[in-house]
Amino acid sequence: MIILYSLFINSSEGSFKTILLVYVDDIILAENDKKEIERVKEALNMTFKIKDLGDLRYFLGFEVVRSKKGIMVNQRKYALEL
Q1: Phi and psi torsions of 8, nearest 5°
Q2: What are the backbone dihedrals phi and psi of residue 38, each rounded to the nearest 5 degrees, phi first?
């Protein structure tokens, strides 16, 4: 496991498997396997009582948009508020 401040990466055989990013009370969890995501969420919930907000849409002022072409990250909402 690699630990870099609040970024936790669990890799196996040289490839990333589970990525957990923590900022204050917000968490992003990325994983190749949905069953493993559920297992990690259950383990976290037993200790911290987490709330699952579903797929990532906003994080630290960034909007995350998914499409068939991939994932786009922007700050449209933040720019409009300025």
Answers
A1: -120, 125
A2: -60, -40
